[in-house]
Amino acid sequence: MKKRFVIWTLILFSLYGLLLGLYFFQWTGVGVPPAYEGTAADPATFMTERELQLSQEYSRYQNFLSFLGEPLEWIIYLGVMVFGVSLVFKNFGERISRFSFVQIPMFVLLLSTLTSILLFPLDYARRWLSVEYGISTQSFSSWMRDELIGFWVGYVIMALLITVLYFLMRKFQKRWWLFAWVLMIPFLIFMMYLQPVVIDPLYNDFTELQDKQLEEKILTLADEAEIPAERVYEVNMSEKTNSMNAYVNGIGSNLRIVLWDTTLERLQDKEVLFIMAHEIGHYVMNHLYWNLAGVIVATFFGLYFTYHLMKWSVRKWGGKFGFSKISDVASLPLFYLILTILSFASSPVELAISRNAETDADRYAIEMTQDPEAAIGSFQELTVNGLSDVNPPALVKYLRYGHPTMMERIHMLESYQDVEIKKE
Ligand SMILES: [Zn+2]
């Protein structure tokens, strides 16, 4: 089985890589459709020849690497079971302790370490590209520090969740998924609450807005939407990247609007105000709460399907992989495998919902600021600074984009402008 696994993995993965290469470098064109040529959404109207060329190369390489990495995690989880590594990990845990609350976190640690090491080259390649094209300005040591923080934060959360999960699997053979879901609800809410005050500051410094003149304009805008001043933060990103961004996160009293300092520094004030209005839109339309509700519903179905798929796979392959029960911790790679495949399969729906919310926030922002020129300018700047593709290939859009494409966003603003001019 090991030999067959290796041969088939090599054949299928090479074929997949080849198809991806053809798709990104041969079959899909760059630029915008003829109807958009010469409009504000056409990068040829706001990028130099050189920027245009770099952005095309950069997005092709990044897309290629990102899609290439997609099935790697699945292959690792499968490989861990096929080669009996899963049993080695389990035996190691049993040797150091007889308590499952030690054995399970140990298993999670070994599996996370192995996965991170195997996926590291790809991560590194993506960082290298980003530095090479002048997007990331982060030093290797700072990047490595972020990677390690990410590893340990992820580990602590997973070790906790998985230990509880296997405890439930042992106790309730048929209903573990339902109990796991019930426990996940307060946990998800708690994590969303902690994110801006505990997790995010591990990576970057958050302060109140530094530019006092701009702050006043931003807070006036926030005031219009009845958002208190302590909700607006600036984060120091300029030592890590040239790209710009802003977001809303958190929940309850920890709900925050965060603007990257790059955005504040590089955009004109009226452009920053449009970005800010977009974030206010998310806040006012309660997108974070809708998102939370969506995650809770998705978790319910995710766990339900995982329960059935786990049962079925253990019956079919458990013998070969050396475990006969779901509640055996050696089945964890199988649990991860099923979960990652399910989350991949559901991502087009999640992303479509998110793109919809983003369009709503754009519309809210333009109605609030009434300044299409600044709005279009901000999106054009965002595109140039991130060397992004205004009109990515369909696969990228449907499997990666939580925002509408820049072509769609700018086009929407332009049509808004036309409507306004006609009104006058
Ligand atoms: Zn948004």
Helix content: over 70%
Kindly state the number of beta strands.
4
Question: What oligomeric state best describes the polypeptide chains here?
Answer: single chain
- With helices defined by DSSP (H or I, 4 residues minimum), what is the helix count? 15
Radius of gyration based on Cα positions: 24 Å
Q: What is the mean predicted local confidence, pLDDT?
A: 93
Measured distance between first and last alpha carbons: 73 Å
Query: Which strands sit side by side, in order, in the main sheet?
Result: 1-2-4-3
Low-confidence stretches: none
Bound molecules: zinc ion
Largest sheet: 4 strands, mixed
Label the structural class. Answer: mainly alpha
What overall form do the CA principal axes indicate? globular
Which band does the percent of strand residues land in? under 5%
Order of helices and strands: HHHHHHHEHEEEHHHHHHH
